[in-house]
Amino acid sequence: MKHEWRKKEKAIYLPKTIPELISVPPYKYVTLSGKGHPASTEFSDKIGVLYNISYAIRMMPKSGFTPDGYYEYTVYPLEGLWDLTEEGKRLKTFDKNELMYTIMIRQPDFVTDEIFEMAYKSVKKKKNPNYLDDLRFETIEDGLSVQMMHHGSYDNEPQSFAQMKQYIEDHNLILTTLKHREIYLSDFRKTEPDKLKTVLRYTSLLRDKD
Question: What per-residue confidence (pLDDT) applies to 178?
Answer without folding.
Answer: 87
